[in-house]
Design brief:
The chain is α+β, with helices and mostly antiparallel strands. The protein folds into three domains: 113 residues, Acyl-CoA dehydrogenase/oxidase, N-terminal domain (Butyryl-Coa Dehydrogenase, subunit A, domain 1, Orthogonal Bundle); 97 residues, Butyryl-CoA Dehydrogenase, subunit A, domain 2; 151 residues, Butyryl-CoA Dehydrogenase, subunit A, domain 3 (Up-down Bundle). It is built from 14 helices and seven strands.
Length: 404
């Protein structure tokens, strides 16, 4: 692996997408070595965060005016996939924290200045569960609540929190928003993150007790849906005209692709030397295992190609100044939502054919298997939330699930 000094981005010239991807690939061995610490600590090691900062990974979707690279999202997802191959908890955490510079770029410029004004390396966590209690006051809102699943929160100085704003006038619709808070306005409860998979993501609870959030530090879900965000006034490249949901849903499915690649590699390694003590049969001569590995390899490449083509299509449309058709948005979100469940099934097929060797904690296939199964629990990875809109938008109907 390259040293931190070798990976440090130039202050005058941004690295190319290819360089960033190679930096991520070079980091895989180190992430594998740190994986047990990551899982035991229930947090990504600070050393890994430092290495990713030095490599420039968190700047891929960040605006250039704040030291970012404003790159094609496929660079971001390629980096995430490789990090997840080394350690899926790390890849998941990177996907979540790494996509937040994109959403922050959609906020009012005053919010962006507050976060990045002193340090362009500031990280932001999130939990979009709409559980906050909101009260309207002059200039903004009072916010309270207890949120779960704030991935990577201990490494961050700000947080994005979901909440529903009550209507200002009787009969008006409720307003779903994301609230941006500094570290001084919330506490992190680290005692609740005890899970069977994705243990190392550090997805702790966030507690807020009646704090003021100015209007400009909120982002309306409707603005993200309509691609009409305040931040686009300053961040006016085609990148920031994409539907925000399309970027986010991929951030919580792509790690499964890296985890599946790690599982395939592990299955191949076990297969090469395993001979059943009960039957005397060698796994490398097992055609059923061969079929499971071949199926996993083939379908993994298929999913990767589908999702890569998705963002090529989105960016081509944005660069032409056109609107992404709603039926495409619904289908793209659906495709992303199927990844975790498909990957879980593929890895499960391999695990059950590898005998007792596969179930030890020292087995390199067991952690990806646990992590991918845990990833299925995310709401964005449930295709049942998407099927109605895939069919409905094909018929010209408006989507019922606006996070597309």
């Amino acid at each position: 692996m390259a040293s931190v000094a070798e990976m440090k981005p130039s202050s005058t010239e941004a690295p190319s997408g290819e360089q960033l991807i190679e930096r991520a690939r070079a980091m895989i061995p180190a992430l594998k070595k740190r994986a047990r610490q990551c899982i035991a600590d229930r947090d990504v090691p600070a050393e890994t965060i430092s290495d990713m900062q030095a490599a420039g990974f968190f700047r891929i979707l960040q605006p250039k005016r704040f030291g970012g690279y404003e790159m094609h999202p496929n660079v971001f997802f390629d980096v995430q996939k490789l990090l997840a191959e080394g350690c899926m908890s790390t890849g998941w955490m990177y996907g979540v924290l790494g996509c937040h510079p994109y959403e922050l770029a959609l906020f009012d410029d005053r919010a962006q200045q507050e976060v990045w004004g002193e340090s362009q390396s500031t990280l932001v966590s999130s939990t979009y569960q709409p559980v906050g209690k909101v009260t309207r006051v002059d200039g903004g809102f009072r916010l309270s609540g207890h949120w779960g699943f704030s991935t990577g929160s201990v490494h961050c100085d700000w947080v994005l929190l979901g909440a529903v704003v009550p209507p200002a006038n009787q009969g008006d619709p409720f307003d779903m928003r994301t609230f941006l808070l500094p570290r001084s306005d919330y506490t992190i409860d680290r005692d609740n993150w005890h899970v069977f998979g994705l243990k190392g993501t550090g997805s702790h609870d966030i507690i807020v007790d009646d704090v003021f959030v100015p209007e400009y530090r909120t982002h309306k879900a409707s603005d993200g849906f309509l691609c009409q965000n305040p931040g686009q006034a300053e961040n006016d490249s085609a990148l920031y005209s994409l539907p925000w949901a399309q970027v986010f849903v991929r951030s919580v499915s792509t790690a499964c692709l890296g985890g599946t690649r790690a599982a395939i590699n592990a299955a191949m390694k076990i297969m090469e030397s395993r001979i059943s003590t009960n039957t005397g049969k060698a796994s490398k001569a097992d055609p059923i295992l061969h079929a499971a590995i071949a199926r996993a390899h083939s379908q993994l490449l298929e999913m990767e190609l589908t999702l890569r083509t998705t963002f090529d299509d989105l960016m081509d449309t944005a660069e032409r100044g056109e609107t992404v058709p709603m039926e495409k948005r619904a289908l793209f979100a659906y495709n992303s939502s199927t990844v975790a469940r498909r990957c879980a099934a593929l890895v499960d097929d391999m695990v059950q054919l590898l005998g007792g060797r596969a179930i030890y904690e020292t087995s390199e296939i067991i952690q990806p298997w646990l992590d991918i199964n845990a990833a299925r629990a995310h709401v964005a990875n449930d295709p049942n939330n998407r099927t109605l809109d895939v069919v409905g938008t094909q018929l010209g109907q408006a989507p019922t699930f606006t996070f597309v």
